[in-house]
Amino acid sequence: MTDSIAHQQQLYVADGLSDEEIAQQADLYGPLTDSVRELIEIALLTEVDDPEVRAAMEHIESAKQLLRKQMIPGPYGVRWGASGQKRAWGNAAAGLRNAIAPPLVIDCDPDGRASTDFHLGSAYEGPAGLTHGGVSALVLDQVLGAAAEAGGAPGMTGTLTLRYRRPTPLGALHAEARIDRLEGVKTIVVGHLAGPDGVCVEAEGVFILPRWVRDRNSATVSDPV
Ligand SMILES: CCCCC/C=C\C/C=C\C/C=C\C/C=C\CCCC(=O)SCCNC(=O)CCNC(=O)[C@H](O)C(C)(C)COP(=O)(O)OP(=O)(O)OC[C@H]1O[C@@H](n2cnc3c(N)ncnc32)[C@H](O)[C@@H]1OP(=O)(O)O
């Protein structure tokens, strides 16, 4: 096994937290993340002058010092609590603790569907006033991956194919995906990202459970008890 695979495995952790403990953490760190997300937008758009900018930077520096006192070594990884509740709180698209994430709150259906209504502010701009194409890819990767997982056929993204049909505005958006078919170890998922005027980006993704997970799963099934 390579070091890289061993490192990935260590970041999938069953930490046994109760649902109550998870809710407490979400109540504590969720608003912190929201506040930092707001700060990103304000820092991008503010037009205050030198003294206010310097004063604000001092406040931010104090906040950084407070928060830095106790930290996980990072990255956050993916964790499961005692009831099986999954926390991918560091996820760049949907992580509850990641201020870079829009964040996406994705509704999943066990028949292999996923959808989300979300909002992209000024921090996600690419072309003037429009969503950055890489951000659209981020969103679609996540929503297509969630559909694969919801349908019981999860995987890492092997290939993601996008067609940008019309410019994607900033603001209120919708994305959805469904499993199209299974081909051996590959899950093929299709979906799109839409704005108020209709579909902006179409996507097809091939999701593959990595070989190390497949090997582990088949070993578990065939191991003598
Ligand atoms: C407690 C443990 C839990 C473990 C969970 C593990 C994984 C996570 C699983 C699910 C995640 C759930 C939700 C995800 C949510 C959001 C989505 C975000 C997704 C991402 O942000 S993810 C980051 C970007 N992603 C990568 O960083 C991938 C890097 N890459 C690799 O990790 C490998 O490359 C991999 C795994 C892709 C394949 O590796 P492998 O060794 O399993 O592949 P192998 O050779 O066995 O091929 C088997 C069959 O796939 C075909 N095939 C191979 N590669 C292909 C490709 N690229 N495209 C199309 N088809 C491909 C072959 O042609 C063959 O096809 P055929 O069977 O028809 O011959």
TrEMBL record:
Membrane topology of this protein: Peripheral membrane protein
Name listed for the protein in its UniProt record: Acyl-coenzyme A thioesterase THEM4
Top-level taxon in the UniProt lineage: Bacteria
Gene3D superfamilies documented for this protein: Hotdog Thioesterase (3.10.129.10)
UniProt enzyme class: hydrolase
Subcellular location, principal: membrane
Pfam families referenced in this protein's UniProt entry, alphabetically: 4HBT (PF03061)
InterPro entries recorded: HotDog_dom_sf (IPR029069), THEM4/THEM5_acyl-CoA_thioest (IPR052365), Thioestr_dom (IPR006683)
Catalyzed chemical reaction(s): (9Z)-octadecenoyl-CoA + H2O = (9Z)-octadecenoate + CoA + H(+); dodecanoyl-CoA + H2O = dodecanoate + CoA + H(+); tetradecanoyl-CoA + H2O = tetradecanoate + CoA + H(+); hexadecanoyl-CoA + H2O = hexadecanoate + CoA + H(+)
Domain Thioesterase per the UniProt entry, residue ranges: 129-184
Keywords: Apoptosis, Cell membrane, Cell projection, Cytoplasm, Fatty acid metabolism, Hydrolase, Lipid metabolism, Membrane, Transit peptide
Localization (cell): Cell projection, Ruffle membrane; Cytoplasm; Membrane
EC numbers for this chain: 3.1.2.2
Transmembrane parts of this sequence: none
Similarity comment: family membership: Belongs to the THEM4/THEM5 thioesterase family.
